[in-house]
Amino acid sequence: MYFFYRSFLDKICPRSCISCPAELLGSEDQLCSTCSDRLLASIIAKRETIPSCDSAEAWMDFDALQAYMHRIKFDSHPELAFYLGKAYALHTPCPLVDALVPVPISAQRRRKRGYNQCEWICRGLSSVWGLPIWKDALIKSHRAAQAQQNKAQRAMHMMDAFAPGRPFPKGSSLQLWDDTWTTGATLNAAGWALRAGGAGQIHARTLASE
Ligand SMILES: [Zn+2]
């Protein structure tokens, strides 16, 4: 029934691939199958080290996701973050964790963007894995944009950028999500705040590695 409805809608209002001019066919979502195959061929699963976390991994090189990340962050496309989260979950076994925790963004940035893209990544993951999302487990204070800072400045700046939010069961095992790995300072700071909140295992994941 859904596909009948979808193909009917596609006839009166064709959808295009967000990455190329191709029209989307019935079951395709966001990306045409050519672009989707190309994207999935970019999976690298790069392992990193983050002091506050038990494991840390990035899914793809930033180059493969750059155009998508731009649309997600600056072009009001949260559904694309959902799509990428779902794609990740479809290609990765469900982790043995109690919940997914999105890295929070400041209230000011949230007002400007209208949503937290990391929450939308987690919603995509959860649509496949069925894991709960603890979106208030961490809170963040507003900080200036990081773009102009070097690695040491960012690390200093990030130290107290997060704090434990809504209490969760002590010893909880968590998968912590950010969209992009830049220096690891954000994930490290978020990890320490989750530890302060009583987390047991923390596994950091990102879609892209810059
Ligand atoms: Zn395409």
Description:
A hairpin with a 7-residue loop joins strand 1 and strand 2. The longest helix is centred in the first third of the chain and has 13 residues. The model has no long low-confidence stretch (mean pLDDT 88). The N and C termini lie far apart (42 Å). The protein contains eight helices and seven strands, in the order ααββααβααβαββαβ. The protein is an alpha/beta fold. The relative contact order is 0.17. It has a five-stranded mixed beta sheet with strand order 1-2-7-6-3, with helices on both faces. The chain has a two-stranded antiparallel ribbon with strand order 4-5. Helices cover 40% and strands 18% of the residues. It has a single domain, classed as Rossmann fold (3-Layer(aba) Sandwich).
Summarize the structure.
By secondary structure, the chain is an alpha/beta fold.
Distance between the termini: 42 Å
How many beta strands in the DSSP annotation? 7
State the assembly state of the protein chains: single chain
Rg, rounded, reads 18 Å
| Low-pLDDT ranges | none
Q: What is CATH's topology name?
A: Rossmann fold
Average pLDDT confidence is 88
**CATH secondary-structure class:** Alpha Beta
Domains counted in the coordinates: how many? Answer: 1
Order of helices and strands: HHEEHHEHHEHEEHE
Distinct compounds present:
zinc ion
Q: How much helicity do the residues have? A: 40-55%
> What is the 3D form?
globular
What would you say the CATH architecture is?
A: 3-Layer(aba) Sandwich
Q: What does the main sheet amount to?
A: 5 strands, mixed
Strand order of the largest sheet: 1-2-7-6-3
- Structural class by helix and strand composition: alpha/beta
Question: Beta fraction of the residues?
Answer: 15-25%
Number of helices: 8
